[in-house]
């Protein structure tokens, strides 16, 4: 694939729509690359304040304005957890403060300003001779730098200092002695969008470049003048302006001054560049940064100084045949993408010969002899790390090297040493896997784009047609079966029609899958919800389309977890399809299972039919054939019992779990009493929604055909009495069905089921809204909580005091959270419902209960201590 094709495709990605990393990882079964693997991201969030540093802070418990020494225990952005000097290892008096609003100063500030220093009461009780304690603390040289607590840098991390409009300088990518100025247009979490000076009005692909703020080639204004570098625009920009115009731009650059307050913070996180030992002419293997898809031979073309050298990608073609000149790039010892010779061979990676190489197999020994060159020794390269936390199939976010403004969902496909191969998702046209260093500043953890408000390009889902459309039916391809046509003839017609569609759309392209909601929906699927589904899904990739179809069916079930169990791949079975992880949610719980999905178009029709039979519904309920008027299976005249006999469990009668039943989908074996209680609740819920009319079946009814009246209560379980059918399927669908049908002759008295239902209703007050039974006259008593009387002010509570209080309430199990998060009295008073749900990861019910007790504390505080 040509580079031009990739560039044209890079701008044609899909629309940036809602994308959720958690759902995507759960559906794909993949793991994300650990956050600590992205050191460049973590460095940008640090403010320079580290645990162990000391400072002076205003003592809040004293009436007069006095200061005392405190030690930083923990940092969280601009929040600091401090401990007064004198408490040693006692955490009870630790307190949080905001560096932006708190009265904080470096050690020695109070003495310089003539302010009084006095410890809080707790320290005075522990240390009678606190003056000696103060002298010792002031003598220690671990104070917070004054620059981090004063001026514009107060509470800022290095990223915050690089605001749009700031002028910077960028070293040329091919010459370490050449520098040009640029202005920051955007700062996306430390990733800077730069516009070269003097390029206003020029195309963005020539005037815009992207770099991370830690790039060793990026500097502040004035750096070129200090290091005697030449001011010159990049070679690609020179022809776009006249020499006189560039001179005018150069004069404006020379007049720019560097802000000394930013300089120290900007270079603080920079690691020093290690001196190299390369010499000109050495051969090595390298990845071309302009097209990082392959590894090829390269040469050290020039050594600038002990830090930088130039690497030139080898090209053995004639000068006239070379496209766009030779590719070269500036490197230092730890630069990504350079390897010793034979690295590819040792790691089992393909080495691409240089363009113009004559011969079938590339051999380094012959190549070095042909070029009369020597290989760069191993000691010129940094050693590979022993531990590597990035593994294959992990996911991350990565920059598109061809179109740097785009960041994609990416999958790690291979890891070798310090380099990995990643596949970008969300491209209309496939791109080769790109090779990146594990410490590259063009890769980011999952949700980085969301955190920084930047669009993320992600994989597309199969198209779902939500509006019902009239299908264009061609007689020679879609012939409506006549009344006297047999099922075998119809099946042959379906197979031949499907084969035609498969050939027309490609081997792996799935045709449209239709939902024929008039067909029998079986015992598991809700007919009303089936009718609300789109008319069809697709066309598209077989796996994606069928996965979407099965997901819609699972969500249309009475009990999605039950349908998922039926579809689950039998671990003992043999299959030739593609395993996909599907999930279901039921009653607040999530379930997952691996389901087999076919990959080729010629298998789709058979797959849909077999899946329908698994779910005991009409084989034509969904599939590549649209049922126009009458179903070929004549499913509308079959009752539920007879249909189950032909297509359901009658064919493979057994007691116990269905195929795949050995999984933990339902959390193991359930007690009958518990299942009975669940049935009762569902029955009551469905009873309210049921209707006496069979033709107008509501969304909660399991069957909507006019022949449903033929189903009697005794027949519904006659085939599988004592089996899984009785235990699992006699849920809301069975009871709702019995309620909606008229009474039919039965061997047992018609009054028999009623005491059973009445007995079940008596167990729970939730049945009081049943239309056949009046509400219970008894209402639950509401107890007024007793007034809370506090012995001390919550503002003075330590973490232990807060935990002790929580343990006296009915939220005692949550006390551990307060202990782990070190929530003291002041923090307790700041808690509200949204904060509790977000920070403590509680559901709504427990969160409301906990907030009730917090509000009691607040009310008592206002009544007793506010004055």
UniProtKB/TrEMBL annotation:
Localization terms from the record: Nucleus
The record places domain SAM at 794-860
Q: Which Pfam families match?
A: MBT (PF02820), SAM_1 (PF00536), SLED (PF12140)
Q: Which keywords appear in this protein's UniProt record, sorted alphabetically?
A: Nucleus, Repeat, Repressor
| Compositionally biased region (Acidic residues) | 706-734
Pro residues composition bias: residue spans: 742-753
- Where is the stretch described as Disordered? 471-498, 650-787
- Can you name one GO molecular function term for this protein? histone binding
Asked if the record carries the keyword Repeat, the reply is: yes
Where does this protein have compositionally biased stretches of type Polar residues? 487-498, 691-702
Q: In terms of domain of life, where is this protein from?
A: Eukaryota
Q: Where is the composition biased (Basic residues)?
A: 670-690
What do the Gene Ontology cellular component annotations say?
A: nucleus
* Presence of the UniProt keyword Repeat in the record: yes
Q: Please list the residue ranges covered by the MBT repeats.
A: 19-120, 128-234, 244-354, 362-459
> Which spans does this entry mark as compositional bias, Basic and acidic residues?
475-486
Q: What is this protein called?
A: Scm-like with four MBT domains protein 1 isoform X2
SMART domains the UniProt entry points to: MBT (SM00561), SAM (SM00454)
